[in-house]
């Protein structure tokens, strides 16, 4: 099974100059714990609910500071045609529960987000399901 068969399409994203407050409100309104940040041409980082609660508070940030100041700049991604089992292994190795999905290696357009939950909802392989359960208990 390929990522495109399980991913969430039409991902939401924010401009990288939004405030921490705006990012948090968007996550609340979208019922999401993860938002990509973009400039005019590319993804520049990702912000998670954990970034807001742990990094912003620990660093004494104002809610009016830019979300990019607490975002993770190392953007992890996969491609829509990648095999789901390989993606789960990548998530386990990277200790993450979600990845951005790009269309292909040439264009690298953002086309979705894939989470361990997305994969689990479509999983028919017991061994892969067990790997997903173990991964979701281990990582934030």
What does this structure look like?
Keywords: CBS domain, Repeat. It comes from Pseudidiomarina halophila. It contains five helices and seven strands, in the order ββαββαβαββαα. It is an alpha/beta fold. It has a single domain, classed as Roll (CBS-domain), CATH 3.10.580. Strand 5, helix 3 and strand 6 form a beta-alpha-beta unit. The radius of gyration is 15 Å and the shape is globular. The relative contact order is 0.20. The model has no long low-confidence stretch (mean pLDDT 87).
Name a few traits of the molecule.
7 strands, CBS-domain, CBS domain-containing protein, 4-stranded mixed sheet, CBS domain, repeat, CBS_domain-containing, alpha/beta
Assembly of the depicted chains: single chain
Strand order of the largest sheet: 1-7-6-5
Largest sheet: 4 strands, mixed
Shape: globular
Low-pLDDT stretches are none
Number of helices: 5
Q: Radius of gyration, rounded? A: 15 Å
Please state the second-level CATH architecture: Roll
Instruction: Write the CATH fold name.
Output: CBS-domain
Q: Please report the first level of CATH classification, the CATH class.
A: Alpha Beta
Count of all domains: 1
The CATH superfamily title: CBS-domain
How many β-strand stretches? Answer: 7
